[in-house]
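Readers of this paper often ask what the protein records in our data store actually look like. The remainder of this section carries one protein's record, kept here as part of the documentation.

:::
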Amino acid sequence: MQLFDTWMAKTHPGSPPDLFSVYGWTSARLFTQALQTAGLNPTRASVLAALQGVHSFNSNGLLATGDPAGKKSPTCWVLIKVNNNQYQRLQPPSPPSGFTCNPDGQYTRPG
């Protein structure tokens, strides 16, 4: 998250981060990972083949782990609140990293 926030501040100063900027950032990371896997002389076919081999992706912990090649989205999540462009973790409250992973993927209010 810190790297994302740093680059948002450099490229779009004063712009609050939102879901769309996170999706753009993580999509670029996935593409870059595939491009690196494709080798020194990547082709469209080699990049697509590399993407088809990505069965675990979380953008260095920014997202819950999903399986893009298997077209399976994550079942884990984190609940946050944004106050004055600052993130406040609500669930799971601690540790300060990680996601809640319920078998049914549903939020259960604590207490």
User: Anything to note?
Assistant: The CA atoms of residues 8 and 17 lie 7 Å apart.
